[in-house]
Amino acid sequence: MSNTAIVGINWGDEGKGRMVDLLTRDFDIVVRYQGGGNAGHTVINEYGKFALHLLPSGLFTKGVVNILGNGVAVDPESLVTEIEAVQAQGVAITPENLKISERASLVMPWHKDLDELEEQRLKDKKYGSTKQGIAPFYSDKYQKKTILAGELFYPEELLAHLEGILEWKNLTLTKVYGAKPYTMDDIKKWLNDYCEKIKPYICDTRSFLRDSQKEGKSILFEAQLGSLRDLDEGIYPYTTSSNTSASYAPVGSGCPSAKLDNILGIVKAYSTCVGEGPFVSEMFGEEADLLRENGAEYGAKTGRPRRVGALDIVATRYGVEVQAATEIALTKLDVLSYMDKIPVCVRYLCGGKEYTEFPFPTLLSKCTPEIIYLDGWKEDISKVTKWEDLPEAAQKYIEFIEENINCPITYVSVGPERDSIIYRKKAE
Ligand code: GDP
């Protein structure tokens, strides 16, 4: 039995989904432990291409049990839509291979409205929310003003609970934002249209995980976003509203006794960042357009063009530390094949000082990057599956990163397909 967390080292979108899809066959259970439908994990396999938002990426592997843990923002409406879309592509989703924690809190219809209303109020000071209701949801969860999935099995108590929450929430909707209030009829319709459909999947996943651990089964923890979006360790306030770090996995999955034997951090061969916030190694103009096009860097959920930049050693080293990563998968190396010289940010400069340690968030917007250039390889590497077949310049690029982030790079991904991967694990 060996438990592994697959986590993002940077701003998210590093390619976690493709690594989970690749490695799931070695695990019995895949658990998502934080976040919600606000980002997307893209997976390409024999069933087709999928942008998974809430569903764990282990669904495509037969025999694997997929769990949405208590730390996840479960949006019944989005989940039903996603389940139906994935089923329509021929993937079986049943209560046998998908289980939702009865202790997961539910994203309510007003959470999305509040995201939208708040971004409108902020105008040009907005955070670039994906408007999936994530920040209002987590605020309410910590205020204890939402409902648990398991409450759906107790209709009488549920309606009384919802009436109380509704009264409170309508005050914010109408008095703060001047928006339309919700009625209990709206909520009953929502319960009927969406919550009834997810009920078959809701169960006591805590006991299931505990017993599975006793039986020696292995768990893969699948994170959303990356270190720099972690609520506590990231670029606050441009973080997400949950903990993206591996150390939260046992808590957010509802299996506090689970030990992480391995933490696989995913690093993209260059940087991307969605939404607002400081991004020191950002590229602009033609250079950025070229990288964005070559990397197809458009949001999986929103289609928004992603901001792109040079690989950032300062941020990546910090991300590795925050995740306590034990090994790294470097993804999208093939995307850089068009470059003559590969830019890498090795240091930040701010107020006459040099920073090799990731600075306090307030300083970030004042930092400029110190960029060095490594040799490019200018040949197609997308079919390479062995380290020794990689051009020397590509090997040197990987080794340079490895030395500077203090963590071994054990996988190199050279394409989005499952098998476009170079294994670099040292023999045990
Ligand atoms: P995630 O949220 O971390 O799973 O990442 P995303 O799914 O948002 O972004 C990763 C994107 O890159 C997806 O479209 C993947 O299919 C694609 N991808 C992943 N690994 C590679 C790779 O090595 N090369 C190329 N060209 N694309 C990749």
Describe this structure in words.
- The chain has 428 residues and is α/β, with parallel strands linked by helices.
- It is 32% helix and 20% strand.
- It has 12 helices and 18 strands.
- The chain has helices at 16-23, 76-88, 109-122, 134-142, 155-176, 184-198, 205-214, 249-253, 285-295, 313-323, 361-364, 392-405, and strands at 4-8, 29-32, 41-45, 48-52, 65-68, 98-101, 202-203, 219-226, 262-268, 271-273, 307-309, 311-312, 327-331, 341-350, 353-355, 368-375, 409-413, 421-423.
- It has a 10-stranded mixed sheet, sandwiched between helices.
- Strand 3 (41-45) and strand 4 form a beta hairpin.
- Helix 3 (109-122) crosses helix 4 (134-142).
- The two termini are 16 Å apart.
- 47% of the residues are buried.
- Residues 8, 12-18, 39-42, 44, 300, 331-332, 334-335, 413-416 line the site of guanosine-5'-diphosphate.
Main features:
4-stranded mixed sheet, 428 residues, binds guanosine-5'-diphosphate, 10-stranded mixed sheet
